[in-house]
Amino acid sequence: MTKLNELAKLGQSIWYDYIRRALFTSGDLQALINQGLRGMTSNPSIFEKAISGSAEYDEDLKAMAQEGKSAEEIYETLEFKDIAMAADLFRPVYDETHGLDGYVSLEVSPELAHDTEKTVSEGKRFFESLRRPNAMIKVPATKAGIPAITELIGSGVNVNVPLLFSVDIYRDVAEAYLKGLERLLARGPSVTGGHKLDSIASVASFFVSRVDSAVDKELERVDRKDLEGRTAVANAKIAYGAFREIFSGSRWEKLRERGARVQRLLWASTGTKNPLYPDTLYVDQLIGPNTVNTVPPATLKSFLDHGTVRETLPQGMDEAEKHVAELAALGINLKEITRELLDDGIQAFARPFEALMASIAEKRDRLS
Length: 368
Hints:
Distance between the termini: 50 Å
CATH topology: TIM Barrel
Shape: globular
CATH architecture: Alpha-Beta Barrel
CATH superfamily: Aldolase class I
Number of strands: 8
Strand content: 5-15%
């Protein structure tokens, strides 16, 4: 039994935070699935590196360039092709787990992060165009994204909510999911191929390493290096406590009895950015039931080599609360830091999207 299968027995699924055409054509992705990989996430930054950094897409790109397609049309066609190929490879996982796993995520344009109506319309269009039940649409946890989550879930569209840093905003996201489920129960799916209540899925993607990067700078400023490298895990544990609270009680039980699933917490940005920290820190310390961890290639390789499979997430909840309280006593405002991280995260995804469009336009002009 592989470590990934051992994690699944503890209730945690490992997804892959990476995508490129060669993964499918080489058989490498299938080999990882055989080891127990259970899903895949993508974002504009990953696609930018894949498309502009290799010749794997040039043949398709040249054909579309000669047809006179725009950079945006080319990008969407390439993206949809990759997502569809990945979703088909993960379809057996989706079927074997009865829809718990086997999902492949793709993101609406970062340019829509503050536009609810366009996020909803694009999310529905993406889902209907892909025609895969295991496709999951990413909608960021912005002020405009929250109502979009409710609308998409209520329409029968699977949703992955990225760029979560704040526990308070996580609560808003979970509430949006519950409202969406209640709407779906009352009205049924409204999109072609949309899911009913007993098959809809969602994850709330809580970003981890960036929290330590930001808070560690403040701890260094106040000369408390002894507290460094602990905030991200503490923040995640507090979010997990909120998850267990939200998905209990009479409101949730009414939905669960009709077949609804919890919106699992997904740990994202789990590659360590500080070389002084263990390279499996944000996997080893966040293992618990009803969670997903989406890992980049290097982190997956490290975990398979020397990671530790042991339930760690439910332990140390009181210590996590004490740590955050100590930050506040030092004048470190975690809510303000997480708000800034959300703003920065939107920009961090927008920049590679813009670079990708420019790269595709350059290749289109050169190859046409």
